Amino acid sequence: MRLKRLSLAIPALLVLWIALPVRSGGDETSGLVGVELIVIRTPEEAEKLLVRLHTGEDFATLAGQFSIDPTAKDGGYLGKVDINNLRAELRDALHGLKPGQFSDIVKLPNGYAILKLRKEPEPGSADDADVIRLRTALASVRLTPDESGYGEFYEAFKNSLPPVAKLRAWQMDLKGVCATRQQAPRDGIQALQKLIAKEGPSMETMRLAYSHYTLGQLFSSERDFDSSLKELEVVYQIAQSSSNNNLAWHMEEVLGIAYLHRGSFTDPAVDPVINEALLFPSHPGALKTKRTDVEKAIGYLSKCLKREPSNTEVQWLLNLAYMTIDQYPSLVPKEFLIPPSVFASKEDLGRFLDVAPAAGVATYGNAGGAIIDDFDNDGLLDVVTSQVDDCAPLHFYHNNGDGTFTDRAREAGLSDQTGGLNIIQADYNNDGCMDILVLRGGWEFARRNSLLRNNCDGTFTDVTAQSGLLNGAISPSQSAVWTDIDNDGNLDLFIANENAPSQLFLNQGDGTFTEISHQAGIDRISNSKAVISADYDNDGYPDFYVSNFNGLNFLYHNNGDRTFTEVARAAGVNQPLLSFAAWFFDYDNDGRPDLFVTSFFLSVGEAARSYMGLPRKMETMRLYRNLGNGKFEDVTAKVNLDRVFLPMGSNFGDIDNDGYLDIYLGTGNPSYASVMPNVLLHNQAGQRFTDITASSGTGAFAKGHGVAFGDLNNDGDEDIFVVMGGPQAGDRFPSRLFENPGKHGNDWITLHLVGVKSNRGAIGARIAVTVLNEGRERRTIWRTVGSGGSFGASPLQQHVGLGKSAKIEKIEIWWPTSKTKQTFENISANQFIEIKEFENSVTKLVRPTFQLGGPARRAREHSTTGGR
Amino acid sequence: MTCRALCFPWLFVLLSSAASVHEYQATGLVLTVDAPHRTVLVSHDPIPGYMDAMTMPYRVHNPRELDNLKPGEKIAFTLVVGKTRSYITHVQVREYNSMERDPAQTRRLSILDEAMRSKSTSTLSHGQTVPDFSLVDQTNHPVPLSEFRGKVVAITFIYTRCPLPDYCMRLTNNFARLQQRFGDRMGRDLVLLSVSFDPDHDQPDVLANYAAQWKANVAGWHFLTGKLSDVKQVCGMFGMNFWPDEGLMTHSLHTAVIDRAGKLAANIEGNQYTAVQLGDLIEATLK
Lengths: 868, 287
What we know:
The complex is a heterodimer.
Chain A: H1 2-16, E1 32-40, H2 43-54, H3 59-66, E2 77-82, H4 88-94, E3 106-108, E4 111-117, H5 129-135, H6 150-159, H7 164-172, H8 174-199, H9 205-221, H10 225-241, H11 245-264, E5 279-280, H12 291-307, H13 312-324, E6 353-354, H14 356-359, E7 364-365, E8 370-373, E9 382-385, E10 395-399, E11 405-407, E12 422-426, E13 435-439, E14 450-454, E15 460-462, H15 464-467, E16 477-483, E17 492-501, E18 503-507, E19 513-515, H16 517-520, E20 525-534, E21 543-548, E22 554-558, E23 564-566, H17 568-571, E24 579-585, E25 594-599, H18 604-612, E26 622-626, E27 632-634, E28 647-653, E29 662-667, E30 679-684, E31 688-691, H19 693-696, E32 699-700, E33 704-710, E34 719-724, E35 733-734, E36 736-739, E37 747-754, E38 766-773, E39 777-784, E40 798-803, E41 806-814, E42 821-825, E43 832-836, E44 843-845, H20 854-863
Parallel strand pairs in A: 37-43
Antiparallel strand pairs in A: 1-2, 1-4, 3-4, 5-32, 6-36, 7-35, 8-9, 9-10, 10-11, 12-13, 13-14, 14-15, 16-17, 17-18, 17-20, 18-19, 20-21, 21-22, 22-23, 24-25, 25-26, 26-27, 28-29, 29-30, 30-31, 33-34, 34-36, 37-40, 38-39, 38-41, 41-42, 43-44
Chain B: H1 8-17, E1 22-34, E2 39-44, E3 54-59, E4 74-81, E5 86-93, H2 101-117, E6 134-136, E7 142-144, E8 152-158, H3 168-182, E9 190-196, H4 204-213, E10 221-224, H5 228-237, E11 242-245, E12 248-251, E13 254-258, E14 264-269, H6 275-286
Parallel strand pairs in B: 8-9, 9-10
Antiparallel strand pairs in B: 1-2, 1-4, 2-3, 4-5, 6-7, 8-13, 11-12, 13-14
C-alpha cells in the first residue's frame, strides 16, 4: 500500500517543485505557508469541484474524495512550503490569495489543480495541543523503524519489574535495578527460544517469522550481533519462501541496517591518541570497517532503494555505508548519491580534534549525561559522566593539569552511583564545593535520583534521602534545574518528570528541601524532557520553561511569591509539539534571554531530506527571540534554524570567541538506522546560524547525548565534550572531547563569580561585558550564570568571547539576591578573574595552560616529526 | 458509488454484453458470508478496467472457499466474468501486514510478552457474545455496553496524543465519516465507541475536547476512558495491544462491529480499508 503511495509521490514532487530549494545565506523572506491541494485529471471535473468549493464544501473532504494526488489521504495537505520554490504556475496561482482562500484551476502536466492557502490560527490562539497535532499532522513522514531491539529490551525490562508492593523498594535500590536491567533481556531471549522450540514447528508462518524477528532484535540489543543476524536472516528466508513480499522487503532494510551496524559501528578501532573514526565527513582509512558486512549492507540497501527510490532514509544509509568503506562519493550509484556539496560548510573556523583517547576520557559506553566543572577548586575543569545503563557507574575524570584526566570515581565514593541519563551540578549548600544531582529513569520508568554532596575533600556523600528529595513520589526524569526562586540565597530545585507531575523543592538552607510543587502551581503533568530557568522578563525572579515531548510546552512565570503562572501560549513559546532539549541564551546580545527548543521526531528520512534541501514535512526546532515585553518572536527560519536534525543532547558555547553563542547538537534516536552526524552551528553575529559540522570535524556519528562546553586546558577557548552512545549494550561508543583549534584570533575573558548573599555559585547572576573592538566598535556581550542547556552541563564559570582586538571598557554584574550591581573597569582581556559579590575589585586567577592529550599526544607529534 | 446495494440486474446486463470470459484480480472487505447460497457480500476496491468500488454479492466457484471466511476480513480474489454467469475464485484472506514502524513493533512486542508472561490471549472470536463492560464517557458518565443492546455498535481504539495521521487519526476519521453517512440513524440504530488506551492522559475533559474537534454527534458517538485495568480488559477482548513508548504509544489497530444481539460481527485489524467499506460492513450488520 505504502509502496504504491510512494511511487505516486515521486512524480508529484517532481511536478510540484521546479528545483531543489536551496536556502540562500542571507534570505530574510523565508515565508513558509501551509498549502492544500486537489489534483484532478480533467478540466471538467476540476470545474465541478471548484463550484462545490464555492458553495462552501470542505476543501479537505473533497481532496480526500477526489484528488489523484498522494496528498488526498491527508485531506490534500501538502505541508508548509516556501512559495518561491514552487513551480511558476502554482506560485502565480497562490499569489494574492489570503489564508483560507483557494485558487482557480491551474493546469499541471499531470492534471488540473486547485490550491488553497491554509488558514493558520492567529499566533497564540491555539492552546489546544490536539489542534496543533492535527495541523502538524506528519503527512507521510516515514518513521525510522526501531532496528536496535531497544523496544524489545524495554519491554523485557518492564516485564521484569517487581510487583507494585515491592516497586518502591526496588526503585531505591540501585544494585537491584542494575540486576533487573541485566537479567531482563536474557530472560526475554530464553523465553523466545523456548517458545520457538516448543511451538515453532506448528506455528503459523507469520507468527514464526515474527518470533525469530523479536529474538533477533533482543540479541541485537544485547550486542550479540552474530546471533541476531542469524535470526534476521531466518525471517528473511521465511518471508521469501512464503512469498510475503511486504515482510521480505522490510527485512532487506532491516538486514541492511544490521550489517552496516555490525560492520561499521560496533567495536570501532579507535586510535589511542586522536579519534578520527566515526566522524563526518569520514576520514579516509580511519574506520576499521568489516568490509564484507558493509558490502552486504550495500547489497540489501540498494535493493530497497531500487524498489523505493524516494525512501530518503535508505538513501542516506546507502551513502553512509559507502562512506564507511571510503568509497563515498566515488562509488555511490549516481541516482542515489547525496552529493557532498549538501554537507559542505560555508565557513571554516579550523578543525577540532577529538583528543578524548589521549586525554583519557574516551569512555566506551551508552547514552548519558556530562558535566564540566571544577569539583575540587584547583582551577582546573573536571569532567563527570553518567550512563543510562543502570550498571554503569559515574565517571569522575579529575583534570590532572597536564592534558590528561584520571577517573577518581572510586576514591570519590561515586562508583556505587550507577545509571542516570543526565547529571547536573550546583553548590546547593553554599559551601564552595560543587555538588552533583543524578537524574534517572528518563525515557524508561522511575528509579530514584541521587543528590551527591561534595564534602570538599575529594569525596561525595549521597544525601538524597536526608535532604528530603525522596519524600514524595519517585518519577522518571532526565532534566532538572537549580535556581533561587525566592532570592533567599539558597538554590531551589525544579525536577521535570515524564508523565508525572513536575516537582519544585524549596531549599531550606539547612541541607533539606520541602516540596512545594502543588502550592507553586508547577505540578502539571506532561512527558517533560527539559526544564530550564531564566528571568526572561527581568523582574528579578527566575522563571521556568518546561519542554514536553508530545505535548505543549510550559512557561512558568515567577509571581515573586513562590507561585508561578503558566503563560507559554501568551508568550508565544508553547511549541514544538515534540520538544526535547532546551535552553535560554542571549543569541543576539541584546541583553534579553532568548529561548531555544529542539524537536525530536523519529525520522531519519526527514533529517536526510533536510540536508538534501527537500521540502520538510514536520516541525523543526525553534528559536524564540525575547521581545522584552513578556513575549517572544519565532525567528527560527530567519536565522536558518528551520532544519531537521533529530537532536538529543545539545548545548551552547562560543567556539570562536566572537561573543555570539554557537550550538552543538548531539543527534540520533535508539534505532541503529539513526546514524546522522552531530551538528555544530556557528552563530554569525546574532543574524543566522551556519552549519560548520564538516569543516570543524565535529560531526561525530552515532548517538550524541550529554554535551558540555568548557575550556579544559585554560587556553582561552571552549572545547566540546560529548557523551556518545545509544541506550543499550548493542550501541556503545566512546565519548568525544573536541579540542578547539583556537584559530579565530579573538579575545576572551573567563569570569568565576562567587556569591555572598546570593547563592555562592552565583546561578542567576547577570554579566554584561562592554568592549571596544579594533578601537572602533563598541558593544555589550551578555551572559547569565548557569550550566547551560538541559542535556549536558557546562561550567558555572562564564567564558566570554570578546571578538577582535577587544578592549574591555567595563564589566557589570547584577546579583539576584542582594539586587546589587558591580561595575569594574580597566580589566584586561584574555585572563581568568574571580568576582565576589559586594567586593570592589576583582581577583586575577592564575591557571596553567597546557595541551590536551598529554604525553601520549606529545609522543605522537614527536614521532610524526614536527607534529601534524 | 451509485450502486451500493444488490446490483444483480446491472451485473446481468453487463455480463450479457461481455463477449467472452474475462478474469479480474480484485480485493475487498467481506461484509457477510452466505454459505447456503454460496455467496459472499463484498465491498470491493475499484477493479481497474471493469468497475468502481462498490458492494457486490459474489458467488464462489467452490463452496469450500467460504469456509473460515469472516465478515471484516480483507480478501483478494479472482473475479471470473463469463457470458452467462460470473463467480469468484482463489479467495485469499489478506492479513494486515503493514511493515511500518508501529504495526511491526506491535507484533514483536506481543510475541515477547506472550513468551515472557506465558499468558494466552483470549480474544473474542466472531459470533461470540461480547461480555458487558462499563467505561466512562467524555461527560464522565458510566457507559455500559449493555445499554446499546438492540443497536449495532462499532468500537475502535485511539489515544488523543497520537501524532500519526495513519493511525488513530485515520480510525477516528473513519468514524467521523460513518457519522455523516448514517446521519439520523446515529444513536438510534448505530452507536460508535472510541476507547482511549491512554486513560491517564485521556480524562473525560480531554476526550470532550477531542470529540468537539471531530465534531462528534455525541448522541451516537461516545469517547470512553476509565481505569487502566478496565481499559486493558476491554482492549484484550478485541486483541488490542498497546505499549507506552518514549512518550508515544506503540499500539495495534482494531475496529470491531457488534451486532444488535451483542455478538461480535467483525473485528478488523489495521487501517487498510476505507471508511466506505467500514460503513458497508455496518450497513450489512444493521440489516
